[in-house]
């Protein structure tokens, strides 16, 4: 009896693995065609400067509308794209599309707005990265200061490579942010040497900031260090007013999260931009009364 049970569990396990593997292969196969078939979209999420009380930047976030599965999250397909190398053409499309879209928004009068683009590891180590960034800006006729590139801590582990490539990117005039800060193998020591402009505090720290003293202490510390290094600090994943109040009291520069807006399509963002700006202003004006 025991043995049979064992066996069925074993068989089930294998069946499950096959299913998962098949699923992944199918997804990988579909992803190969997604770009050409126009199934990829960029959504944009506002980043709000608390002191100015306005949206200063938009983070471009990729979306895949699969013909049968519907929306597939980037958490699911970015790793596949990364492993297969598909991230290279996809990443190029993201960069070019984001630059063109921002230029379009500037022309529409959304002035002084920047765009943030996530770079994948493979892209970061791609030999033509600097040329690609330069060409994307040129083709879109976008001044470089409006583009921010988001990298993660793990990409900077090869410090000399990271320092060189980031310096080249900075020479173009773009800004560099470290995404998901605090979750990777960061060394505070290198933070001072890397030519970066901004750190984005990971939302896992923000989530429990009002209930967990340790999270609160870590955020306060990250903000303080970043400020001393003259870096801009953005907190990710702000969903609640009390989280916002905490970040304001700690003098965090910018926030991003569902409280202000979820990521939205370019059409929707265009339509709701003025309203979102006003809403941001109202939230930030209320903060001025927070002790
Ligand atoms: P990320 O760069 O850290 O992006 C922030 C993620 O947090 C986004 O998830 C966003 O939708 C989500 N988010 C924003 N505000 C809130 C909030 O208040 N609460 C919660 N719970 N979540 C919030 P998304 O769009 O699913 O993207 C996940 C990750 O996929 C990104 O994390 C980024 O690492 C990667 N990714 C997205 N687009 C691209 C891309 O174009 N290229 C590359 N290489 N990676 C991308
Ligand atoms: Mg990001
Ligand atoms: Mg990330
Ligand atoms: Mg992040």
UniProtKB/TrEMBL annotation:
<protein>
    <recommendedName>
        <fullName>Diguanylate cyclase</fullName>
    </recommendedName>
</protein>
<feature type="domain" description="EAL">
    <location>
        <begin position="24"/>
        <end position="277"/>
    </location>
</feature>
